Amino acid sequence: NLQYADALASTSHAMARQTEKFIKPASPIFITPFGVDVNLFAPSPARNSERSGGNIVIGTVKTLEEKYGIEYLIKAFDIVCRSHEISDAENLLLKIYGKGSLELSLKALTAELGLAKKVEFCGFIPNKDVPDALNGLDIACIPSILDSESFGVSAVEAMSCSVPVVVSDVDGLKEVVEDNCTGFVVERKNPQAMAEKIIELIKNPDLRVKMGVAGRKRVLKLYNWDDNVRYMSECLNKTVSEFN
Fold first, then answer.
1. What residues contact 237, with CB distance under 8 A and at least 6 apart?
2. pLDDT at residue 49 greater than cutoff 70
3. Which of 51, 69, 106, 150 is 20 to 30 A from residue 58's alpha carbon, by CA?
4. Close Cβ partners of 212 (under 8 Å, ≥ 6 residues apart)
């Protein structure tokens, strides 16, 4: 199918590189990101005032399946809560949005680690409610473990809401997150590495704000859905014009 196409487009550089392992395209693959509605996924003006003096909320919005590595986030959160670097661990909260086949086992892991009162399983939410959920977080974590996540839209959504992110080094996530600028990229399946970066963000509110602002700017520059659609249209028009 790929060989018979007149032109190829990929939502990420990562997937384009995988494609080029199988074929040699006659022309460069168009990179057409799957961006977000930056008006819907936008920072809430009230978020900072609501968060000040309250809990530090860490969270994720993901399907509860093995490829998304939620167990590693829970283990990282356990390390954070037990860290001597955190003086107010009682104010830490982990929110997990989503449903899936691992829900019961993840809840069992949470209970086993003694975190039942500090981890909230919020269940499935429709996409229209995701911006509100993200704006309720101080730190968003995406601990996916497979490179089949070829575009990190969940990280883009969080960054668009000016929420700093800690993500694993799967291809799609490390492409959209600028390490040490819009968030941190850590080794997959490594709860200790994720915990260390979460601790760094907890201890440094100014860094959370700085990374959140940088994340929003990056999304506006690269992953604004309106801009992405216009570019997709240009790619289609360019391809058609070559056959006229």
1. none
2. no
3. 150
4. 43, 159, 162, 163, 164
- In the predicted model, is pLDDT for residue 53 greater than 60? no
- E-only strand ranges, the chain: 9-10, 30-31, 56-61, 92-97, 119-123, 139-142, 165-168, 183-186
A 10 A CB-CB count for 137 gives 25
Rounded Cα distance, 165 and 60, in Å: 10
Q: Which two tokens stand for residue 47?
A: 């978020």
Q: Which phi and psi (to 5°) does residue 10 adopt?
A: -135, 145
On whether the CB atoms of residues 119 and 110 are closer than 8 A, the answer is: yes
pLDDT average, residue stretch 73-95:
93
- Predicted local confidence at residue 159, as pLDDT: 98
The CA distance from 237 to 244, in Å, is 11
Q: Above 90 in pLDDT, residue 132?
A: yes
Number of Cβ within a 10 Å radius of residue 12: 21
pTM for the structure as a whole: 0.92
- By the 8 A CB rule, do 220 and 41 touch? no
Using DSSP bridges, classify how beta strands 56-61 and 139-142 pair: parallel, antiparallel or unpaired: parallel
Q: In 101-120, which positions are buried (b, 16+ CB within 10 angstroms) versus exposed (e)? A: ebbeebbebbeebebeebbe
**Block residue for tokens 């990562």:** 14
- Residue 3: other Cβ atoms inside 10 A: 10
Instruction: Give the confidence band of 231 by pLDDT, cuts at 50, 70, 90.
Output: very high
